[in-house]
Design a protein that fits this description.
The protein is built from 9 helices and 7 strands, in the order ααααβαβαββαβααββ. The protein has helices spanning 3-21, 25-32, 36-39, 43-57, 76-83, 95-104, 140-150, 178-192, 202-213, and strands at residues 66-70, 87-92, 109-112, 125-131, 151-162, 214-222, 226-234. α1 packs antiparallel against α2. The longest helix has 19 residues, at 3-21. The structure holds S-adenosylmethionine. S-adenosylmethionine binds at residues 25, 29, 40, 43, 71-73, 76-77, 92-94, 97, 114-115, 131-133, 136-137, 168.
Length: 241
């Protein structure tokens, strides 16, 4: 057996052990924090794409642009954005992930909080990003309500990636049975105590939520199988004001 295959098997064993030891998303991400970057390697392409979109959006103003990274984990996306010159605040409820992030990238500000209750001033962020975390939020409506409060009038929201893959690693494809396998997968995870919404409908539902608050909402290609939702310019909206 090649060393690469043995390493893959070890990572899968770690993922499964963490899943069986955990009773919530928070515990799961605490348990896998030290192997996170080796397991979720696919995320890098989306992180780079998000950074490219934001550089285009805020060209020349990076150093005065404040970005909030929801579910920042161990800092993959936060670090790429910070390296491009943006000011980043990362939020995550996994304390162990944030400890790792802080050890690696001490200049990035982090807050240990749940997206359902963001400890951020109103209208102070120019962009909110969330990569690979939206699928875990118990109440995406509440998350959207919270995050829009933090955005400036011309704020940008980028959420990725869709459709989510099983366990963040196995691409689900668009086969007719994907909906049923997804439901079964989610049922098993709920029994274990945590949430991973891999429904093919998650993207359209998120677009629907974003359209209530933003004037423009697009779905942008990222990598060979995935898309990012990009929303711009807040509407004058009774839910926000
Ligand atoms: C798949 S990881 C993504 C991490 C990072 N964005 C990346 O792409 O590498 C999902 C992250 O979302 C965090 N998370 C999930 N639900 C959350 C919530 N309700 N509030 C705060 N963080 C949450 C988890 O702790 C985890 O670190």
């Amino acid at each position: 057996m090649s060393a690469k295959l043995i390493h893959k098997i070890e990572l899968w064993a770690k993922l499964l052990t963490a899943a069986f030891r955990s009773h919530s998303n928070q515990q799961f991400y605490d348990h896998i924090s030290d192997s996170y970057d080796d397991i979720f390697v696919e995320h890098k392409q989306h992180a780079v794409k998000i950074a490219q979109l934001l550089v285009r959006e805020f060209a020349g103003q990076e150093s005065t642009t404040q970005i909030l990274d929801l579910g920042c984990g161990t800092g993959l996306l936060s670090n790429i954005l910070s390296t491009r010159g943006f000011n980043v605040v990362g939020i995550d409820f996994s304390q162990k992930s944030l400890v790792l992030l802080h050890q690696r990238y001490p200049d990035i500000v982090v807050l240990n909080a749940d997206v359902a209750n963001l400890p951020i001033r109103k209208a102070c962020c120019h962009a909110v990003v969330s990569l690979g975390a939206w699928r875990h939020f118990t109440d995406t409506q509440k998350a959207m309500d919270e995050l829009v409060k933090t955005l400036t009038k011309h704020g940008v929201l980028i959420i990725g990636y869709f459709p989510p893959s099983y366990a963040g690693t196995i691409h689900q494809g668009r086969r007719p049975w994907a909906k049923f396998t997804g439901q079964f997968y989610q049922w098993v995870l709920r029994k274990l105590g945590y949430i991973d919404n891999v429904s093919p409908d998650l993207e359209s539902h998120t677009i629907y939520l974003a359209k209530r608050y933003f004037e423009s909402v697009d779905s942008v290609r990222s990598g060979s199988h995935w898309r990012l939702i990009v929303a711009r310019n807040l509407r004058k909206c009774p839910h926000r004001d």
